[in-house]
Amino acid sequence: MISIDNLSKVFHSRDGAKVFALEDVSLTVGDNEFITIVGPSGCGKSTLLRLVSGLIQPSSGSVAIDRTIVIEPRQDTGIVFQMPVLLPWATILDNVLFPLKMLGRDVTGGIVKARHLLNMVGLGGFEQKYPRELSGGMQQRAAICRSLIHNPSVLLMDEPFGALDALTREEMALEVLRIWTEEPKTILFVTHSITEAVLLADRVVVMSPRPGRIAEIIDINLPRPRTFEIEAHHEFQKAAQRVRGLIFGNRDEQQTSS
Fold it and tell me: What is the pTM of this model?
């Protein structure tokens, strides 16, 4: 379980001015729950994920995973960024195994797991290829495998499909759902796509403009497994419309007040 309690983050610009990225964010995420986070650009979505990961520390408030306060990156947490960030000189198999090397775990024993993950995402047979030999979507699949190799209980995904074309993006969204079904994890998934947010989530967290606060949390009561055909479902359209209204309503209010 992830417990986020009154979390705030303030950065300082070069001229010393304070930039309030997040303010009093509180959220509880259950085990194996799939949470998507949406909001306007600059609302602190990525900052929230970095705080949960332990890559940065809050200005106030706290993040706890399984009742342990997060003060540094944890071995039970995996991260997928917008870009794959694969090692260009290493094969795809070695890239997937890299976290095990960093954690001092048994790499030889991890090869079976790595091959299983690569097969699961359609990269069987590409183990000895190099990143430059793969498409962007294939590289991101490899990055997802790398984030899962050490069997984390929490997976943080920061706009992982943002650099992909529309068709590949849809394919990858369904791939993540399939992986989550086969190997359940607690997932926090940041996206700019309202459709993606509703398709994937158990709950959608909608953020307000900076300083980022939680404007609303929307339950997605749609049957699983899901495909993009579910977009025609009345409840899907209702949820997407609510998310859209919150995001653009907040933006319009901010522009009116400025």
Answer: 0.90
